[in-house]
Amino acid sequence: RTYPVPIRITAFDRSGLIGDITHILSNDSINLLDAKVRVTKGLADINLEIEVRDIKELSRLLTRIENIPNVLEAQRNNPG
Predict the structure, then answer these.
(1) What is the per-residue pLDDT for 29?
(2) 72 vs 44: CA distance, rounded Å
């Protein structure tokens, strides 16, 4: 069983950034349900909805995303 989770990534925009993020999702067999990307003045605001099995998997994934060059922060996006 998997659970949909919204996450938000903030990064300095660069060529290949989205590819690096989706590569991690693919390697971890994590399903991407939705993606929205907005770049303003060189700063990328990336909102994804993914499916994870548990909080450990989510935590591991966020850590791996934060280790991508130019990524400033990756966190669960709690609506409201």
Answers:
(1) 95
(2) 10
Cα→Cα distances 79→7, 14, 56, Å: 10, 27, 21
Segments of the chain scoring below 50 in pLDDT: none
Amino acid at 6: P
Residues 47/6, Cβ–Cβ less than 8 Å: yes
Residue 63 phi, psi (nearest 5): -65, -45
Distance of alpha carbon 46 from alpha carbon 55, whole angstroms: 20
Residues across the chain: 80
Give how far Cα 48 sits from Cα of 35, 75, Å.
4, 10
Query: In a 3-state reduction of DSSP, which class is residue 3?
Result: strand
